[in-house]
Amino acid sequence: MIRIFVTGGTFDKTYDEIEGKLTFTDTHLNEMLQLGRSQVDVSVRTLMMVDSMAMTPDDRAIIVRNCQTCPESHIVVTHGTDTIVETAAAIAAGVQGKTIVLTGAMVPYAFGSSDGLFNLGSALSFAQTLPPGVYIAMNGRHFAWDRVRKNKEAGIFEEI
Asked: Do 96 and 23 form a contact (C-beta atoms < 8 A)?
């Protein structure tokens, strides 16, 4: 079984037509798993719905604590891409012996042209096959948490 922790980020944003901005309502994760016809045994838990730029040290501590205490040894964390590396570092400092893969999206799933569905599928696959450690999965690639950065100009994650 793979535990999936939802934390928000662009992955789960929707457009609020009244306010004219991106907001959160509920996670799209279950719909994404159905659309992708996933046959992976998962347990989903929403920890928070925040933009990663607004994520606090307390929020990261909640993520780390949940990764530490859940019985599953294979974990996927959905997260905003702007501070995903910082959260991965916090998890790596606090959790050993588990395979933890963080993923996100550059375009909200609700927009229809999102990379989120592909990234989620990739993260589930990597969580099943990689050795224990903390990784970031984006665009069909996986990266060790301490050897990756977001290239904002190119809109991709790249190894450093």
From this structure: no
